[in-house]
Amino acid sequence: MQFHSQRQMIADEVHARPFQQLSAPVKVLHFALMLGDKSIAGVREEISQFFLQCGGQAMEPEASFCYQQLDSLALRWEAHTEFYTLTLYHNQLDSGWHQTLPGLPENWSDQLPGELVTGVQIQVQQSSDQADEVAVDDIFRNHQVIGSSVMRGAARVWTDFRAEGEFFLDRILVKNIHLHGYQCGRLLQRLCEIDTYRAVALLALEPARQTMKQVSQLDRELAAITFKLSELDKGDESETLDALMALSAQAEEISADTVNRFSASDAYYALVRMRISELEEVRIEGLQTLEQFIERRVDPAMRTWRAAAQRLERLSQRIARASNLLRSRVDLSTEQKIHGLLSSMNKRTRRQLTLQAKLETFSIIVVTYYVFDLVERTIRHLTSGEPQDMAIHWLSYSLPVVVLLVWWYVRRITKEFKSDD
After folding, report:
1. What is the model's pTM?
2. Which of 83, 150, 323, 350 is the most exposed place for a label (fewest CB within 10 A)?
3. Domain stop point among 179, 200, 221
């Protein structure tokens, strides 16, 4: 028995991104940064240097995930297709919600490559029921608060999804009721992923709005061309077909620019909904749940980019139908021209046959002359005297018969041409 070449990779993939064992109190800073023009290898090298400055170890080559636990600081790096995430954990809380942690090097944020697209700071506190509501009001300053009981009542979560502070991070407060270590790690990871995937899913909103404007403009141009189709003069089809082909090219260009973004956003939003369902939320009286907030605020954006993709697809179909209609008209016009050409050729052929028929008389005369001359010469060579004179006389008398026979023979040859329509 031989091992498959990817057997170890398949076995390791199951444990590639494990949840961490965490417990309250803990403060978390989570960042999602777009790769942009940077390669994942270059980003890995820079993050590896950042780990070294924090007192950790360099990452392994080709690694897509790394977690390192230092004294009071933990670092987690994870690579994705078009972005990467960096999560920092510290076992001390910060009443001021400052967006930094002890143990990080000076100007640490300048060392992170890429463009920050979203981030979140989370504080996990031990629950004190009598002070929970007061703490929530103090932290979120009477903003609209979203909250719920999660993980079958093991914790409570509050947030306002407002980007604030130095790095414009969303703030999430978690009150630990009876979370065990890995359960706390799963909860924090899901909250970070909800914020990350929600943000990158919304990257399709601006392209969708631009697509809507472009499609509306192309729609108006297509409507004008379609309206003129029934009034086109012969010979103008080529210009109109060129205009339709130009519209089709523009539609395909827009589709090529947006299809990957729209597909990725659909996939990211599906992950958001999956992570929310894994929270097992139970509503807190008077508060909107995370699921309700996401559905109300993100669903319209999702419908926008889906509508843009559908409008673009319908536009392409309409252009194709108009092009087919115009091509059918061009084909019909071409067939009519071919039919006219064939009719003209047929008329010329009939004229030639008519001329040939008129020349039949001369042909009969010529053929009769040669037949009569041939017979006469034969008689003169074969006979002499009185028999010769009699034969020539009879030949002269049979001239009408010879003419009729020649006429009949010529008519028989040309009969099939004359009967052809």
Report:
1. 0.76
2. 350
3. 200
Q: What is the pLDDT of residues 285-336, one digit of tens each?
A: 889 999 999 999 888 999 999 999 999 999 999 988 888 887 777 777 777 7
Shared-domain flag, residues 229 and 282: yes
d(CA 19, CA 67): 10
Residue 351 lies in a domain: no
Q: Mark whether 43 and 155 lie in a shared domain.
A: yes
Q: Are residues 12 and 140 in the same domain?
A: yes
User: What would the mean pLDDT of 208-224 be, rounded to a whole number?
Assistant: 92
177 and 208 share one domain: no
Q: Name the residue range of residue 365's domain.
A: 359-418
What are the structure tokens assigned to 78, written together?
A: 């994870």
Within the chain, how many helices (H) and strands (E) appear?
A: 10, 9
What is the phi-psi region of residue 107: left when phi exceeds 0, alpha when psi lies from -120 to 50, beta otherwise? left
SS3 289: coil
Q: Is residue 85 one of the residues assigned to a domain?
A: yes
Q: Which is nearest to 372 in space by CA: 364, 360, 384?
A: 364
Partners of 174 in the beta sheet? 124, 157
pLDDT band at 359 (very low <50, low <70, confident <90, very high): low
Q: How far apart are CA 287 and CA 205, in angstroms?
A: 27
Residue 38: C-alpha distances to residues 51, 63, 81, 82, 373 (Å)? 19, 16, 12, 10, 105
Single out the residue in 169, 200, 231 at which a domain terminates. Answer: 200
Q: How far apart are CA 341 and CA 345, in angstroms?
A: 6
User: Hey, how many other C-beta atoms are within 10 angstroms of the C-beta on 414?
Assistant: 14
344, part of any domain: no
Q: Are residues 12 and 61 in the same domain?
A: yes
Number of domains present in the structure of the chain: 3
Those residues with Cβ within 8 angstroms of residue 223's Cβ, 6 or more apart along the chain or in another chain? none
pLDDT at 131 over 50: no
| Residue 212 φ/ψ, nearest 5 degrees | -60, -45
Condensed to tens digits (0 to 9), the pLDDT of residues 250-292 reads 999 999 999 999 999 999 999 999 999 999 999 998 899 999 9
Q: Are 305 and 298 in contact (CB under 8 A)?
A: no
Tell me whether residue 347 is in a domain.
Answer: no
Q: Domain check: are 208 and 163 in the same one?
A: no
